[in-house]
Amino acid sequence: MIIEHINVYTLSSQLPRPFAFSQQWVTRRSATLVEVVTEEGQSGWGEALCAGLLEPELAASVIKHVITPQVLGRSVFDTEVIWHELYNRTRDYGRKGVVIAAISALDIALWDLKGKATQRPVSALLGGAFRLRIPAYATGFFRTALGQDTSALVEEARRHQAAGFSSMKIKLGFGVADDLRAMADIRDAVGDDVELMIDANHAYTVSEAALLADGLKDFRLRWFEEPVNPDDKEGYRLLRQKTLIPLAAGEAEFTMFGFRDLLAGRCLDIAQPDVAMAGGLTAMQHITALALANGIQVNPHVWGTAIGQYASLHAIAATPLVNPTLAARGPIFEYDTSAHPFRSDLVTQPVAQTDGWVQVPTGPGLGFTIDQDFLREHARRY
To answer: HSE-up of 76 (CA within 13 Å, CB side)?
Structure first.
């Protein structure tokens, strides 16, 4: 299984209706995809997360001009060696951001190929599946208009509850008073049986986040995600001393080197690397080992295309529990409910939840088939 050539694709689609989270408006969804083709003609697929907020050509350029020359002619089974070589080669200008996202895309594709070559699911190659189905939580609750009207949020919560979700993550970060009002209205609408999480997308200072956490102390939240700036590790540590709500973060962090201080400093209760951004499945293994050694559970962030979703399911399946008691709760799958054509239409069988659960793919590799008609129509070869 020798790498013969690499195809890079960019996709971009304007949203019919933009939506906002605490930092900015999202007007489109984008993706950078990589197809690694072996001498035998077998293809493996990977993704560099764009999240609709940066140009997909950035990661594509790194894959084309930096990564490809280094990996042609290499065995797809050399994932650990290739990962470290690429990281060390790009260290002076990489370490975070699109360079690591580009490495992520390649790494995911190589794991896909390893699974196809051995006719085994990626979760098995990662060491085995601790779980074959995973509870899903609805993530969404983005704003299509700013203001104090919570009716759209309440309607969305009721819709997710009717679809079978028993866990939901609410986007906050629009002012503490507005956040508290929105949470009260949503809780009234869905009742106490629905588990809620909140995500401020690092909108607050430590004191503001502490004030919000105090106002929600009776909501029995599963976690408070990205309360403060991702670079403010001391802020996380201080906030963790001020609230009993578990703190979660990591979607804006990269590789085991980036997570090291965050984990060793006990800044978090839950680490959330994104497999399509933090360094791929190889990096997920590194980060998970560090987190486990520091008593912190890994629960990946997921907001990419179908490729990122499938890769994340395998990563979650192979993630051990930090505290494996009889009553322990495992990691849950972030089920993006926002508009994203590259999630629903890119593969012939998109990830689907049933009664709030998602099955772990059991086919060879990552377990999906690219819809070639959709790719031809919407993707651009870089």
So the answer is: 30
- When the candidates are 3.30.390.10, 1.10.8.60, 1.10.10.10, 2.60.40.3500, the CATH number that belongs to 3-119+370-381 is 3.30.390.10
Reply yes or no on whether 286 is catalytic.
no
| CA nearest to 334, candidates 259, 256, 275, 260 | 275
The one catalytic residue in 160, 286, 301, 378 is 301
CA dihedral 36, 38, 41, 42 (to 10 degrees): -60
Distance CA 185, CA 180 (A): 9
Conformation bin of residue 100: beta by default, left when phi > 0, alpha when psi is -120 to 50: alpha
Provide the 3-class DSSP secondary structure of residue 109.
helix
pLDDT tens digits, one per residue of 169-217:
999 999 999 999 999 999 999 999 999 999 999 999 999 999 999 999 9
pTM for this structure?
A: 0.98
Q: What are phi and psi of 379, to 5 degrees?
A: -95, 150
